[in-house]
Amino acid sequence: MSFKNQIQRRRTFGIIAHPDAGKTTLTEKLLLFGGAIQEAGAVKNNKVKKSATSDFMEIEKQRGISVATSVLAFLYRDRKINILDTPGHKDFAEDTFRTLTAVDSVIVVVDVAKGVEEQTEKLVEVCRMRKIPMIVFINKMDREGKDAFDLLDEVEQKLGLNVTPLSFPIGMGYDFKGIYNIYEKNINLFSGDNKKNIEETIAFDDIENPGLEKIIGAKAANELRDNLELVNGVYPDFDKELYLKAEQQPVFFGSALNNFGVRELLDCFIDIAPQPQPKMAEERLVRPEETELSGFVFKIHANMDPKHRDRLAFIKVVSGTFERNKLYLHVRQGKKLKFSSPNAFFAEKKEIVDISYPGDIVGLHDTGNFKIGDTLTEGEILHYKGIPSFSPEHFRYINNADPLKSKQLNKGVDQLMDEGVAQLFTLEMNNRKVIGTVGALQFEVIQYRLEHEYGAKCSYENFPVYKACWVEAKDSKSEEFKEFKRVKQKFLAKDKRNQLVFLADSQFSLQMTQQKYPNVKLHFTSEFN
Ligand code: G4P
User: Fold this and answer.
1) Any known ligand binding at 88?
2) CA 328 – CA 339 distance, rounded (Å)
3) CA distance linking residue 375 with residue 286, whole number of Å
4) Contact 111, 154 (CB under 8 A)
5) Residue range 356-386, pLDDT digits in tens
6) For atom 26 of ligand 1, which residue has the closest CA?
7) Residue 144 Cα, ligand 1 centroid: separation in angstroms?
């Protein structure tokens, strides 16, 4: 198969959802369709259970499992599909944001009863900002839930999307009979009482056909006709170009658990979802068809076993091919590296591969060379954009609790930050180090890992911060900026990339600062140009 065909057949995407909406179940059903697994239950559920929130070792164990499900690849209708895992748990939101830099599209799962939930809002916002094409899957239609039109409204309003339904439910919960597939123009009917299987798929391109009554009964037939008329009147026709530009989002209804509406979703996804896309580097736009390799690290997974300290760095291939035992340039370090056992992912297994193509994810064993955002090339100096840091939610001073081990502590903190476990800020005023995390749990994880992996001890001290904002001065020589730096000295720090950060202690002080220094721009992510 030609290089070009290899690119065209790849679809790399992520499924995003609030925990419990059905992401794991849907993933598993997609793998079943791809024949990549034989039975349900094969994909380990790597979500962090609510009950485990105080047990961080449990979480780390589950993070361990998630190595296996970080990338799940399978073939379907001759397409190579790569699903990238995106943890829904809010403590790992940063992981998910970074993973979204490596996908070409996403499927958003919404629970029919709960509607749009908080985590979904945040993740979709990131996708909207990055113009990632999205398909929405409304799940759990076998349960009583919200009215379909109300849900479509909610998705539009809360997620800021422009939706158009490509399927429509016939009934819901107890009365759920099946789904009219607007995209394929057919009806899928549920079987009998247990609603576990699709009874049959009936081609039905004319909804006015009186045969509809025979299939679903007069009441449901009339209701469906009315609903479809409303759909026609209210929602625009599906437009693939708009979907690809992230300006329109098709919506499917179904039940992942019962395998209902999943094949329709997958078939449509295969038809419309984008192949690997060009990516902007600081230097230039890089196209997948270019023959020379380039790729970037979007995730680093540490081995929790202290006897095996290696880590797995996940690289998304952007252009060219990644080949085993070939020398590549590690751009940040300016050194050449080769990899004798690059891992590729298939279903829930990983195996050594000789060649990978744009859109693929390669796992590289690493002993500390890689940081999130690092680029590999065949010699060109390229830096990929779009792996920003977001403001952490929790901040604490980190102190060295064993003066004899300060070297170990610094090394450990450095490496954990490279992995993206948390963010480090160094205060301008006194050089004290502050750690910022998305979830409070990460502090325990860091303390535990520093002790067990690096032999260092740390303690924490509270440091009340409302938000970290990255500072951009319109004119760094202006009196305004000088005054800002002088007055706010206590609240200024540098991040790992030496960017200036303002640590606002309250929403009020943030607002006041913005008003007082209008030419000092405060950004909530580290990438703003
Ligand atoms: P997540 O990865 O998004 O967190 O969700 P997950 O797939 O684990 O699903 C969360 C719960 O919702 C699971 O039940 C799952 O069986 C159920 N579920 C998923 N899809 C459907 C659906 O279409 N209909 C119905 N009725 N339920 C669905 P659980 O009891 O929490 O876990 P389990 O014991 O069944 O694994």
Assistant:
1) yes
2) 9
3) 12
4) no
5) 999 999 999 888 889 888 999 999 999 997 6
6) 140
7) 15
CA of 19 to the centre of ligand 1 (A): 9
User: Please, are residues 329 and 85 in contact by the beta-carbon 8 Å criterion?
Assistant: no
Q: 158: annotated binding-site residue?
A: no
pTM: 0.84
Question: pLDDT (tens digit, 9 = 90+) per residue, 217-264?
Answer: 888 889 999 999 999 999 999 999 999 999 999 999 999 988 888 988
Confidence of residue 159 (pLDDT cuts 50, 70, 90): very high
Which residue from 15, 20, 83, 137 has its CB within 8 A of the most atoms of ligand 1, so it is best to mutate? 20
d(CA 73, CA 75): 7
- Structure-token pair, residue 347: 């279903």
Which domains are assigned to the chain? 3-173+235-272 (3.40.50.300), 279-377 (2.40.30.10), 394-523 (3.30.70.3280)
193 marked as binding residue: no
Residues with CB under 6 A from ligand 1: 17, 19-25, 45, 47, 88, 139-140, 142-143, 255-258
Burial profile 215-246: b = 16 or more Cβ within 10 angstroms, e = fewer: bbeeebbeebeebeeebeeebeebeeebbbeb
pLDDT digits (tens, 9 = 90+) for 168-225: 998 877 778 888 988 888 888 876 555 455 556 676 777 788 888 888 888 888 999 9
Contact 278, 289 (CB under 8 A): no
- In angstroms, what is the span from residue 257 Cα to ligand 1's centroid? 7
pLDDT in tens, 42-90: 555 544 444 333 455 555 555 544 545 578 888 999 999 999 988 766 6
Cα of 255 from ligand 1 centre, angstroms: 10
Residue in the structure block whose two tokens are 């699709």: 198
Residue 26 and residue 15 in contact, taking contact as beta carbons nearer than 8 Å: yes
- C-alpha span between 149 and 168 (Å, rounded): 10
Closest residue by Cα to residue 37 from 346, 441, 437: 346
State yes or no: 139 annotated in a binding site.
Answer: yes
Measured in angstroms, how far is the CA atom of residue 483 from the centroid of ligand 1? 54
The mean pLDDT of 434-447, rounded to a whole number, is 86
Distance CA 168, CA 180 (A): 5
